[in-house]
Amino acid sequence: MDYTAKLDTALNRLHEEGRYRTFIDIERQNGQFPHATWRKQDGSEQPITVWCGNDYLGMGQHPAVLEAMHEAIDATGAGSGGTRNISGTTVYHKRLEAELADLHHKESALLFTSAYIANDATLSTLPKLFPGLIIYSDELNHASMIEGIRRNGGAKRIFKHNDLDDLRAKLEADDPDAPKLIAFESIYSMDGDFGPIEAMCDLADEFGALTYIDEVHAVGMYGPRGAGVAERDGLMGRIDIINGTLAKAYGVMGGYIAASEKMCDAIRSYAPGFIFTTSLPPAVAAGAAASVAFLKSEGGQALRERHQTQAKILKLRLKGLGLPIIDHGSHIVPVIVGDPVHTKQLSDMLLDGYGIYVQPINFPTVPRGTERLRFTPSPVHGPKEMDHLVHAMDDLWSHCALNRAEMAG
């Protein structure tokens, strides 16, 4: 077997399809986000503006977060020193879990090294706790949810995206006495659309199912204290397990679930993804706790309002150019290109010619034919950055002879 040839075949296939992923070396500038420096392979540098980051509110450079991290690293050193069970539980981890439980008005929270691991570990463990469990999963759920459900050994039903009739039909077809769980997201990050949370909870009540929601793209950014869309809509109390991240709006790293004390205790005790993983460094936990606490405050609410305003302005201006925007009212701004090669070309030209960094989104992250550029405006993208982006998109859309809708006005 020529293993190298097999690797060449696999990689060449990605190149031929125009969806080979390339990374650029970025040096973020503290206090200057979204501005950064692109370190090129030839040794040269170019200033760029990041338009595709997940640090949605710029909290990765907030003074309260940085101060908390400095204090923790000076007090404790770098790493945690072990798994949570073996010397890796510190006052910083416990403080963060308390902040998260309070954020979601739950009895408890459980910290993981990422939201991917939190989804995977929790969803793969639940059938051990509820034998015979059937999980009903939205077809557009994140890869981490799909992976956890796929390998949990239990039964699964995939329902059409946000399709309550399809979900109801699948619930009705199963044993009414079987334990059930409905897994879905509050915001689907590629289109920026919302899950029908209240209707999902109504079905869960009717069929005696647990509810599991992924609020990764909403925590910090929606609701009076930033607990997510379920908080905004007054529905947190109807959700059994909430998954969130500390790596997006909170600007640091890590993931978690918030649920009842017994649910978190059971996951803590049974999930290999929790038990056998070294815990987050104390400084990371300290920074995340400071970020969560700040975004619960009036200052956090002001940031959320500015964030939503920026997203509305960008969508309005790009629509005015006739660009094919998907707008479901969230903070995510997808511009559909529809071809992997053109999407990569646009991304490269924006970076090389305009200093605008936005990564192409291709299959399998999105369906073929819906390849896109996905912009994530933030409160720290100012009018100058916005003008530069809009003018660049207008120029390049014409240069590449891409279709436009009828121009507004």
- Say how many strands there are: 16
User: Can you write the helix and strand succession as a string?
Assistant: HEEEHHEHEHEHEEEHEHEEHHHHEHEEEH
**Span from first to last CA?**
63 Å
How many whole angstroms does the radius of gyration measure? 22 Å
Average pLDDT number: 95
Strand content: 15-25%
Number of helices: 14
The best one-word shape is globular
Structural class: alpha/beta
> What low-confidence regions span 5 or more consecutive residues with pLDDT below 50?
none
- Could you give the order of strands across the largest sheet? 4-12-11-10-7-5-6
Helix content: 40-55%
**Biggest sheet character:** 7 strands, mixed
SSE inventory with pairings:
Blueprint: H1 3-17, E1 25-28, E2 35-39, E3 45-50, H2 63-76, H3 91-103, E4 108-112, H4 115-129, E5 134-138, H5 143-150, E6 155-159, H6 164-173, E7 180-185, E8 187-188, E9 193-194, H7 197-207, E10 209-214, H8 229-232, E11 241-245, E12 255-259, H9 261-270, H10 272-275, H11 282-295, H12 298-320, E13 333-336, H13 340-354, E14 356-357, E15 360-361, E16 372-375, H14 383-399
Parallel strand pairs: 3-14, 5-6, 5-7, 7-10, 10-11
Antiparallel strand pairs: 1-2, 2-3, 4-12, 8-9, 11-12, 13-16, 15-16
Helix pairs in contact: 2-11, 3-11, 4-5, 6-7, 13-14
Protein architecture, described:
The chain has 409 residues and is an alpha/beta fold. Helices cover 42% and strands 17% of the residues. The radius of gyration is 22 Å and the shape is globular. It is built from 14 helices and 16 strands.
